[in-house]
Specification:
about 260 residues; alpha+beta; six-stranded mixed sheet
Length: about 260
């Protein structure tokens, strides 16, 4: 008889899977259409791994913020680990074999039909959602705020600051800085930047980041980007496409406090 498992939280699932041998962390490598092991940097093509278990966890207030934990096994590379993913904020390219394999196993809700030239920004939003989850998980595990702060500092400097700058310089002008939606987005960027740079009340700042970043991403994905898609000219689209060279997100696993 096959053993079945049930978990109430993402952390519980990840911890138990690790105890059962799924000790490596995987990310999607979009350029090469494969999974990459962040521990060994081994790349797994869709034919070189199997999804042996899948667990879905809905957000506290919104099913669109759900997280999915995949238990991954590769006999060829003798690797077992987990992939943590968030669905519901963008549609990946139909040609991606990796995404097709994950979606087949996860049966996610229908994602937003995001324009191709905005998908890189939407993928970066995905990592923002995971950051918020990591912060919440860290505090639930009684991790000191100073440890969490080191990771959020890295994330902001390496990824989020540039993301904000690209949006403000190349994407927001499509609607114009006088647009009320753009004004709201810029104000939220500024408020988040202040929170990331807060050094006095770390716990308060970090917990507020986890709330405000998710709300900001929801606003951009569900409202702002849809408005931009509706009015962008071919010239503006070409400019954004030229700006976004492909690059994969490589996480900082120096101190994976969320595991």
């Amino acid at each position: 008889m096959i053993q079945t498992y049930n978990y109430d939280t993402v952390s519980e699932a990840l911890n138990d899977l690790a105890k059962r041998g799924f000790t490596h962390d995987f990310n999607i490598h979009e350029d090469a259409d494969c999974l990459i092991c962040t521990n060994t940097m081994t790349q797994l093509s869709p034919e070189e791994f199997e999804i042996v278990e899948t667990y879905r966890f809905e957000g506290d207030t919104d099913p669109a913020d759900e997280m999915i934990v995949f238990a991954i096994s590769s006999i060829k590379h003798n690797l077992k680990g987990t992939l943590l993913n968030a669905y519901g904020i963008y549609a990946d390219g139909a040609t991606s074999k990796i995404v097709a394999k994950l979606e087949k196993n996860a049966s996610p809700a229908k994602p937003i039909n995001r324009a191709e030239y905005l998908k890189k920004l939407s993928r970066e939003h995905h990592h923002g959602l995971l950051l918020a989850w990591k912060i919440k998980t860290g505090f639930s595990k009684k991790i000191p705020a100073e440890r969490i702060k080191k990771y959020t500092d890295w994330f902001y400097t390496a990824h989020l600051k540039r993301h904000f700058q690209e949006e403000e310089k190349y994407v927001f002008p499509i609607l114009g800085n006088d647009n009320i939606l753009i004004q709201k987005a810029i104000q939220e960027h500024q408020q988040l930047a202040q929170l990331f740079n807060e050094t006095d009340n770390l716990e308060m700042a970090l917990k507020q980041i986890a709330i405000d970043l998710v709300n900001h991403i929801r606003f951009e994905e569900r409202i702002l980007f849809n408005q931009i898609q509706a009015v962008a000219t071919p010239e503006q689209i070409t400019m954004i496409e030229a700006l976004h060279t492909s690059e994969s997100f490589i996480d900082n696993t120096t101190d994976p406090f969320w595991n």
